[in-house]
Amino acid sequence: MDVKKEQIQAAIDQIATLVVESIAEKEKKDSSIVLADFLTSQTGRKLYDESLKFWCDGPSCIEEMYRKEKGLESRST
Questions:
Q1: Sign of CA dihedral 27, 13, 56, 68
Q2: pTM value?
């Protein structure tokens, strides 16, 4: 089964949404602020670089990488 570029992009967008919503909830921040910061972060740029296949790691791994990049405390709740 061939995966189309549009399907990969949709998966990446969904992962980004899950990561941003989780961080916004845990940090008690507005999701639009978290989204803007996430998209300009190294983690966000890596996620959207399809050649790195970073999106295959899943949302929890991406969130943890973002938290480490930003020096945020890891929160499992």
A1: negative
A2: 0.87
76 assigned to some structural domain: no
- Number of domains into which the chain is organized: 1
| Residue with token string 């499992």 | 76
Per-residue pLDDT of the chain (77 residues; tens, 9 = 90+): 677 889 999 999 999 999 999 999 999 999 999 999 999 999 999 999 999 999 899 999 999 999 999 998 776 54
Residue 42 lies in a domain: yes
Give me the domain span that covers residue 10. 5-70
**In this structure, are residues 77 and 34 in contact, taking their beta carbons and an 8 Å threshold?**
no
